[in-house]
Amino acid sequence: KAIRRDRTPLRAAPSMGLPPPPPPPPFPIPVDRFVEECDGDDPKQAAQCCAAFATLATQVPVPRDFRGATRTLMELVERTGDGFGRVTKESATAAMAALLATVPGADKNLVNRGVVDKLVAASIADEEDETPRGPAAADQEGGGSPETKRGGVNGMGSLTLNSLECIRILAASEHGVPELMRNDGAMAFATKRCDDGDPRIAEGACDFLCALASRGEAQRTRVRERGGVTALAKGLARHGKGNTHVGFRALLGLAMTCAQDGEAQAELVNVPGVVQALLATQRSDDAAMAGIAKDLWGSIGKNPELKKVVMEALRADVERAKAAESA
């Protein structure tokens, strides 16, 4: 083996004359202008500004000084009257999700302002609001997205979808996890929506529980203790056959919370319809989904106390199917 005797520092290889990569373009909206437009009295302008920010945040790096916009977004979520309502809240929560996903420290600012409780309260109030939705309603409120089309941070989802996205991001953040470990309202908000009739909402709720459970054993215990196993099982039973997005997230959450816990497995198999769903998803065309289902079923099969429960659950599912056919 050759030994290098020359102890002079090694030099980096020449760059071959390649120019350095260009810097990213500046963010098109300065934070002071964003705050000014959102703090104004024009709900249409505020909604459009938030929607533009949510879209741009997926294309251009967001400056760190946008942490200063957390107060403005929180106030928009709570603001009502004078044209401020559903559309502005939807756009504000879309912008909030984008801010949480792209700006370090935004989670701390928002958690300190009580963001979780306020998102949950606003979403529940919106779900209970019987005000008509549609183009006319949107025009009266100042534009934006009149219909619930997609969730996430694209500025086009309902308030519940965007709120679930915000707390999902918080479940992976330094300051969000401690808040969610003690906030029972957020857990109840998510678990009640895992089997929602709208599969997008069910997906968002299951995704949040998965994100929290993935943080560690303490978080998995938290999900189990707050009804997460039954909630995820209901989501799988309702949507597992028809929606792979919901089914995959429900299975993933169940695998994390039930694979090594006999009590959780017993809770799981007692949920109506979930045993049939587990069997069906093992034959899914989605290889990842089928693999998780097989592993989870294998763990349940190793629990001798559950064999009788599983057989009873299968018989009950058959009887329910027959009753539904004859109804």
Report on this structure:
63% of the residues lie in helices and 0% in strands. It has 327 residues and is mainly α. It is elongated, with a radius of gyration of 24 Å.
Q: In terms of topology, how is this protein built?
A:
Elements lengths: L30 H9 L3 H14 L13 H9 L7 H17 L3 H7 L2 H14 L6 H7 L17 H12 L5 H7 L1 H8 L7 H15 L3 H9 L2 H12 L4 H15 L3 H8 L4 H8 L5 H15 L5 H20 L1
How is this structure best summarized?
This protein is mostly helical. 63% of the residues lie in helices and 0% in strands.
- What is the rounded Rg? 24 Å
Mean of pLDDT? 86
H-E string: HHHHHHHHHHHHHHHHHH
Q: Tell me the total number of β-strands.
A: 0
Estimated share of beta-strand residues: under 5%
What structural class should be given to the helix and strand makeup? mainly alpha
DSSP helix fraction: 55-70%
Poorly predicted runs are: 1-5, 135-157
The global form is elongated
Total of helices: 18
N-end to C-end Cα span = 83 Å
Characterize the largest beta sheet: strand count, sense, and whether it forms a barrel.
Answer: none
Features:
mainly alpha, 63% helix, 18 helices, disordered N terminus, 327 residues
